[in-house]
Every structure is written in structure tokens, then in C-alpha cells.
Here is the input.
Amino acid sequence: MRRVRTAVAAAGLLLLSACGITAPRSSDGFADLDSLGLADTDRVLVLSLGPSVLRFVAGQLDDEPETQALLQGLDGVRLRVYEIDGDSARVAARIDRMSDRLQSDGWEAVLRVREGREQTHMLMRTVDQRVRGITVLASDGETEAVVINLMGQLQPGQFANVMAALDVNAAGVQDVHPQADREG
Here is the structure.
């Protein structure tokens, strides 16, 4: 009986991943990301949304056309939030290695900011001169790290419109130019 339940659960997971509930590995914007380290972090949130869920959510946002357009262009969103409970220097080194590995896989580093122990890496994947993926790797250097991977047909200008539509206050956000690497 236990084998039957395991087989049914596995089949259910395969069907869910195939029908667009989770972010698709087949997307050009899929970033093959490592863990930030079991000994040094605890994953507190893992989210993987595929096109079906994203389009459903977009359909509910009639009063926010910018956000709706962004969600309709996405094939998937993956989000991981980690609590750093070990060696934060090792976590920072893993983020650097993850960024380097993505670059060797064809991702372009468009932003890198370091201030004190905090760090943020933003990478972009283009295919046929179109943005197909954006990945952000960030850590406050002490307590938390976040990994985000957006997949689909992305238009970077849409993000400014979405931030304005959601009334996100940009106070305190520093102007950082692409390809910048600032040490603080």
C-alpha cells in the first residue's frame, strides 16, 4: 500500500509540474542554482510558480495593467529565502561562485553592489537579443539571503512601471549603473 501511495504522489507531482503550476526548467531563463549551504542556512521560503498560476494571478489584476502585463510575460518565478544561521562569509562566497557559474553559462552580470557585508548580484540571460531571464542573488551579510529567478519574455522597463503601480517607495535606493561593482 505504501508503494502505491508513493507512486500516486510522484505521478501527481509530475502532472503538476507539467501543467504549468511550477516554474519550467525548459525555459531559456531558467537559472540552474545551487543551495547556499545546508550547514550555514535554513531555507525559510521556497516558491516556484509556473505560467498557469502567473496568468491566473494576472487575470485578477484588472486595476493594475503594468503588473498584469509583466505577469503575463513570465513563464516562471522561483524564489528562495534563506536564514543565515552559520558562517555568513561562506554564504557570501557561495553567492559569488553562483554568480560566476551563471556567467560562465552565458548569463550577463548587469549589476553587482557590495556595501559592507551586504551584496547584490543581478544577472540577465538574453536569447536572440531578448531578455529571457533575470536572476538576483542578495544577502544582507548577516541574517538573510534571497535568490530570485524570473523566466519568460521580460522587458526591463516594465519593472519600473510595476514598482510605480505598486507604490514602492524608492527612498534610500542608490542609483547603481549596470556593470557597476562598488565596494563599501
About this structure: Helices lie at 2-18, 51-59, 65-72, 88-104, 156-165. The mean pLDDT is 78.
